[in-house]
Specification:
The chain is an alpha+beta fold. 36% of the residues lie in helices and 38% in strands. The protein has one domain: Molybdopterin biosynthesis MoaE subunit (Aldehyde Oxidoreductase, domain 3, Alpha-Beta Complex), CATH 3.90.1170.40.
Length: 160
Amino acid sequence: MGEIFIDVWNVESQPLDAMEGLAFVTKPPNGAESLFIGTVRDLNQGKEVLGVSYDVFEPLVKQSFTDICKEAQEKWGKTLSLYVVHGKGRLPVGGISIVIAVGSPHRDEAFKACRYVIEQIKHRSPIWKLEHYEDGDSQWTQGCELCTHEHAVEEHHHHG
């Protein structure tokens, strides 16, 4: 069985480290490592963002991360190594909010598993973000870096 590492870190005291994720999944029998890094955008739905505060319900988030990683192993191979760490606390624009690394014997599985993990987290994990805007306003939104608006556009495009 491939190893799974999941955690939630307070990013105000310890920034997320993509290289740590990569190091965790780079081991035999893997010949392919896929890395996803989510960072804070400077613009969301037309508003200038100064930073984001992440609120994470840790027990459920950790359970969901573990479940999702195990599902990825079921789908793409028991030897997959997976690393998922999400930040909590306030991040500036460009700050890393999530690191997902997948190690697999072959690249196709590494890409697919990595994509699966971020998409599932987006839909299933209890993570909220409070966006702080330049105009002094702030707003809570659910989810990670993949905006549901993009999915709506994609789906519409397929039907058209």
